[in-house]
Amino acid sequence: MRSRFEPDRQLTARMALTMFLLGLVYVAFVAALIALLKSTVLVVVIAVALLGAQYWYSDRIALYAMHGRLVTPEEEPGLHGIIDRLCATADMPKPRVAVSHMDLPNAFATGRNADHAVVCVTTGLQRRLTVEELEGVLAHELSHVAHRDVAVITIASFLGVIAGLVVRFAFYSQLFGGRGRDQNTAVVFMAVMAVSALVYAISFVLIRALSRYRELAADRAGAMLTGKPSALASALTKVSGDIARIPTEDLRTAQAFNAFFFTPAHGPGTVVANLFSTHPTLERRLEALAALAAELGGPGGGPP
């Protein structure tokens, strides 16, 4: 089903290109493993099983990790009311709604498609934002569902994790079990590590580039739906400023899900760190929203 969210052909093209390139990289990766290890049936079976579990149960995994709980309209009438209005405006199925009792101000959407999606917000976000600001954040998250980039980033991220696991497996196998092995075996394991590290590095760069663009696309689509870019810009400014004041331990717990968050769970980074971030800089996002507000005809935008 097509929603009324503004289509983004550039996002669609980038998702297709990223998955195509990752596919080529992983075909080469499997071929290299077969050549080096002679038998990779178990590795492939385990990888496919884990990928299937990640794809089918990504919503449950994310909610469990972030201490999220599905809530009914009776429990959270205000939150459900905003999502009901946005989904009616966008003409899209309503996702399940969840709340995470964390002070970290953030939100995320996950799920393999629009019919199996969930949007989760933290109590820290609800407490800090006005209704208009929260509406902007939720429109941003719903656009991820409508654009289907949640499923793409889930699969792409998991493929990178597999390569990382192979690197660790090869390293620890050689480190703790290498005394009785001959030199040829050691060379094979070093080769596996090198290939896996290269695959992980390529995947990392491709996924980060896609992730940064999809956040800009979601900002634009969400602001277009509500017609209030300034409300989303205000939410971004508030959340980014407050995240910098969250204890480091709490941020570290959440950083594994940065690619799915409305804003990353860390403070301002260096120029190099920003190049490898899952999100564009706050300044870049605010500039894009300001340009959209001018395009819509005023400081706050126009009607949706």
Automatic annotation (TrEMBL):
<keyword id="KW-0472">Membrane</keyword>
<keyword id="KW-1003">Cell membrane</keyword>
<feature type="binding site">
    <location>
        <position position="140"/>
    </location>
    <ligand>
        <name>Zn(2+)</name>
    </ligand>
</feature>
<keyword id="KW-0645">Protease</keyword>
<feature type="transmembrane region" description="Helical">
    <location>
        <begin position="186"/>
        <end position="207"/>
    </location>
</feature>
<feature type="transmembrane region" description="Helical">
    <location>
        <begin position="12"/>
        <end position="34"/>
    </location>
</feature>
<protein>
    <recommendedName>
        <fullName>Protease HtpX homolog</fullName>
        <ecNumber>3.4.24.-</ecNumber>
    </recommendedName>
</protein>
<dbReference type="Pfam" id="PF01435">
    <property type="entry name" value="Peptidase_M48"/>
</dbReference>
<keyword id="KW-0862">Zinc</keyword>
<feature type="transmembrane region" description="Helical">
    <location>
        <begin position="150"/>
        <end position="171"/>
    </location>
</feature>
<feature type="binding site">
    <location>
        <position position="215"/>
    </location>
    <ligand>
        <name>Zn(2+)</name>
    </ligand>
</feature>
<comment type="similarity">
    <text>Belongs to the peptidase M48B family.</text>
</comment>
<keyword id="KW-0482">Metalloprotease</keyword>
<keyword id="KW-1133">Transmembrane helix</keyword>
<feature type="active site">
    <location>
        <position position="141"/>
    </location>
</feature>
<keyword id="KW-0812">Transmembrane</keyword>
<keyword id="KW-0479">Metal-binding</keyword>
<feature type="transmembrane region" description="Helical">
    <location>
        <begin position="40"/>
        <end position="57"/>
    </location>
</feature>
<dbReference type="InterPro" id="IPR050083">
    <property type="entry name" value="HtpX_protease"/>
</dbReference>
<dbReference type="GO" id="GO:0008237">
    <property type="term" value="F:metallopeptidase activity"/>
</dbReference>
<keyword id="KW-0378">Hydrolase</keyword>
<feature type="binding site">
    <location>
        <position position="144"/>
    </location>
    <ligand>
        <name>Zn(2+)</name>
    </ligand>
</feature>
<dbReference type="InterPro" id="IPR022919">
    <property type="entry name" value="Pept_M48_protease_HtpX"/>
</dbReference>
<dbReference type="InterPro" id="IPR001915">
    <property type="entry name" value="Peptidase_M48"/>
</dbReference>
<feature type="domain" description="Peptidase M48">
    <location>
        <begin position="74"/>
        <end position="291"/>
    </location>
</feature>
